[in-house]
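OP here, attaching both records as promised.
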Amino acid sequence: MAAYGLYTHIASNKTRSMLLLGGLFVLIYVLVYAGALIAEVMIRSDATAPYYLRAALNDLIKALPWATLGTAAWIAIAYRFHQSIIDAVTGGEAVTRQQQPRLYNLLENLCISRGIPMPKLKIMDSPALNAFATGLNQRQYAITVTTGLLAALNDQEVEAVLGHELTHIRNGDVQMMVVAVIIAGVVGFVGELFFRLFTNVSWGGGWGWGSSRRSSSSSGSARKGTSGAAVVVIIIAVVLIVLAWLLSQVIKLALSRTRETLADAGSVELTKNPDAMISALRKIEGRGELPGATSAVMELCVDNPREGFADLFATHPSVESRIQALVKFAGGRDPGPLLLPAESNQPGDPQIDPRPDADQSPPLPGPWGRSQPTPADPPPQGPWSDPGPSSGPRGRH
C-alpha cells in the first residue's frame, strides 16, 4: 500500500485478475462436463461408472467450441448492453455541468490534474450513500453517485470518492469486475438450469431405475449394480456443479476485495488528502445499501454492506480495515464512527453533539490537544467565562 509500491501492486493485481478470469472459463467447462454426465445417465442408465466418465469426456471435447462461443456471445451481449441494464436497475441518469456544477467541476479537476479522460457522470436518486464506476472501454466509462452521498459529504470527501472510482477505471478494475460478474452469471445460470433439470426428472421410472422387467435373478442383480453406478455419477455431477458455483463466487470476491484497498490508496494519490478518504468512508459506513439493486451492482460500489454467511461472501473488506490501512500507510487520521447531521438531531438523544465539527478529527497532541474541558478540569477563568449566579450577566453571550 505504500506509495512507492502502488504501481507494482496494480500490475501484480492485473496479472492475478487475468488468471482468475481464465479460471472462470474453466468453470464453464466443468459445468459442461457435469451436464454431460447427467445426459449420459439419462440416455443409458445401465452402464458402468467408467463408461459414463469416458462418454462425458468425449461429449465435453465435442461441445468445447460451442461452450466457448456461447460464453463469448454472452460476454458480447453484456459488453454492449450492461450499462443500459445497470441504469435500468439503479435509475442512474447522465448529468451535465449545468445540472450538477459542483460534482462536475470536482471530477473534471481531478481528471485534468492527472491527464485522465473524463468519464460520464451520472446521478442516482437515492438516500443511500454510495457510488460506483462502470464501463468496459473509454466510451462507456461512467461514474454514478447517489444524491444521498452528495448531500452528506463535503467537497473534499466527494472528491475522495470520485478519486476512488477513477482509480478503479485507471487500474482496469471496472472491466475485470464487469466481466467477472458476467461469467459468474453464466455459471449461476447454467448451474441452476442443471439443478432444475435434475429435480424435475422422475426418479422412480424416468431413467428405468425403479423397475426391472427382466425375469432372471442374475440380470436383476446386474441391473441393480449398474443403477448404483448411475447414482454415483449423478452425485459426482451435482458436486461438480456446486463446486463450480462456489469457486465462481470466491473468484469474484478475490477480484473485489484486494481492489478496494488499492482504490483507496489511488484516491489518496490523486487528492493528496487521506483524511478526506477516511472521513468519507466513515460517513458511508453502514449507509450504502441501494434498495432494489442486485448483488452485481452492489459489488461495484464504494462500500457493499451486504455480507454473506460469517462474512465469507462479503465482496468488500470491512471499512475498519480499509481505514486502518490508510492510517498506517498514508498517514491519515481516523475520527471514529461519524453521525450525519440528520442523525445527530434525533430527539431524545442528549449525548449527541449537534455541532458540525463535532467528532470530525481526533485530538491534536500538545497544548491544543484538549479542545473542551473534561469533568475533572477546573472551570475556565477569564472575561468570557460564566462565574455563577452571583456575578450577574457579565460574561454571558
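Record two, same layout:
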Amino acid sequence: MEDWAEIRRLRRAEGVSVSEIARRLGISRNTVRSALTSDRPPKYVRAPRPTLADGVEAQVRAVLAEFPRMPATVIAQRIGWTHSLTTLKDRVRQIRPEYVGIDPVDRVVYQPGEIAQCDLWFPAPPIPVGAGQERVLPVLVMTLAFSRFLTATMIPSRQVGDILAGMWTLISQVGRVSKTLVWDRESAIGGTGRVSAPAAAFAGTLATRIRLAPPRDPEFKGMVERNNGYFETSFLPGRRFTSPTDFNAQLGDWLPTANARTVRAIRGRPQDLLAADVAAMVALPPVAPQVGLTHRVRLARDYYVRVDGCDYSVDPRVIGRFVDITASATRVEVRCAGRVVAAHTRSWARHSVITDPDHQATAAQMRRALAAERHAEQHRQVHTPGSVATADAAGTVRRHADGHVVALRPLPDYDALFGVNFTPDPAPEIAVTSTPGISEEASN
C-alpha cells in the first residue's frame, strides 16, 4: 500500500520517470506501470478454495426447495452430514435466501401526534403486595413514536378495565392523545383479531383509534419493545421495591432521566420534541372514558362482593338489592341506586378479605334486632289449635306472599296429631309384700 502511494506521488507530483521510480524503490518497471494504471489501492484476495460443503450443495438445495425454512441442524441429519456443522451452516446461510426470499424492512418516518405504541412489560422481580404475598405484576408502557417520549405505570392485572385505566393515567399525564394507539394481540385488547368492545368504547370516547399489530410480528411495534429492554438494563438493576406504590414512585423519578437522554434515531432528546408531538395530538374529551373493573351483582346474605379475587364488605342494609361495583388501581367503590354503600382501598394481593368494621357492626345489630323481633312476635301471636293466627294490638300477623293469613299452630298440636307424647306420666309405685321366712331386708 505504501509503495503504491509513493509510486503515484513520484510520477504525478514530481514527474519522475518509470525507470527512475523503479530504481529508487528497488522494484521492477512492470510493477510501477501496474501501480500507475490501477485507480484503486492494491488488495490481497485469496483464491477460493473448495470445501466439504461443495459436495453436498446439490442435496442441500433439494431439501431447501421442498422445505425452505428447515434448520441447518435438521438438514445435516437428512443428508447424513458427519463433518463440522459450522461449514454446513455457512453454506446453508448463503443459499437459503434463494428459496425463502428476503424480507426488507422500510425506514418509517413518524409524524408528530400520529402514533403511540403500547405494550405490557413484566419485570422479573416479584413485588410485595401485602398479606405476605409477592406477585410479578404487569407494567403498561407507552412510547410516543415521533418524540420517543416514554411513560409507564404498574397496573394490578391484565384485565381490560385495569389496562384501560393505566392507559388513561398515562394519557392524562401527557395531556393529549395520539391519533393512533398501536397494540399487539393482547387478549384484553384484541386477542381475537378485533378490538374488544371496552377498548373500542375507550378509543371512541377519546376520538382516537386502536390499531392491532399482525400476529407474531413484534417488529410492528419494535420501538416500545426496545424500550422494554431499556427498562430491563437501565431501570431495574440494583433496585428493590417494597410495594407497587414504591415501584411506581421509583419509576416516576427515573423517567425524566430516560426522557432527557439523546436518541440517535431522532438526533435529539424526547423531552425537547415532546411539545411538537403534543401540539399535533387530539385534545382530551370533557368527560373521562369508562375505565377500571365494573360489574353488577345482587348482594348476598354475607354482604361481600368479589373484585379480582378479593372480597370486600358492603353495607348489609342493601342485602338482596343490586349493587354496582367499580374498581380502579387504588380504590373499590360499591353503589346501590347511586348511593355509595362501600369504599375500600384496593388490595393487589390474592384471596384477601377486606372488612369495614362499620359494616360488621351493622350486621351484628341487624341480627340482634331480627332475633328480638322474632322473640316478640312469638309472644304477640295468639295460638289456638286449628285456628288461624290472629293479629295483636299492633296488627302484626304472619301472612303468605299472596296476602292471606298463615295459620300458626303450636307444636303440641302436631304431637297430638301423630300420637307422640314427649311428657310421659310418672312411673307407678311398686308395692312390696312380705313373704314368710324372708326378712324385710332380703326382700328389699
